[in-house]
Every structure is written in C-alpha cells, then in structure tokens.
What we know:
Elements: H1 10-20, H2 25-30, H3 41-58, H4 61-77, H5 80-98
Amino acid sequence: MLHTGTVLIAERFVDELLAAAPQVGVLVTENRDPDDGMVLLHLLLHDLLRLAVSAFRAGDAALVTSILVVTERGFRDGDEYVRNASRRVVRRARRGQRR
C-alpha cells in the first residue's frame, strides 16, 4: 500500500486487518477490553506476530503477507498508538528479510 497521507487510527487499522485477513477475527475479539470494547493493540500485535510466525512455518504465505502488509501500513501511516504497537512486528519481519 502506498502512503495515503491520512493517519491510520486504531479502529481503522483493525478494520483493514480484518478485511485483509478475516481469520484474525478471533484474535481481535480476544484482545478487546471487556469494559469499553476497544482493541488492545499491543496485545493483538503480539498475537499477530505469533500467528505470522506459525503461518510462515506452515507455508501460508498469503496469511503472512496479509498480516505484514497491514502491520507495515500501521507502522508507516498510523497514529502514535498504532505505530508503537506495530513497531515490534515490523522490526522482526525486517530482521527476517536480512537473513
């Protein structure tokens, strides 16, 4: 995705993630704050990292790509909350590319 010039907020990040990889819906649900329904992005991204690694090991390139494309966009175009939550996944993916 190219930079659109708009800031990606948490709600839109989750919407884009679900559109790109509907199978992560369970993780989104599991990482909602029970009090206000907000998705706890740091926890979600931690789970997404584990899912992406598992999918990579299983040869599911489509799922890995979907997760990484949206996460990279969050890192690049997100507000401070989204960028901060996305940072770990993006860094780990970039390290893996250099190996």
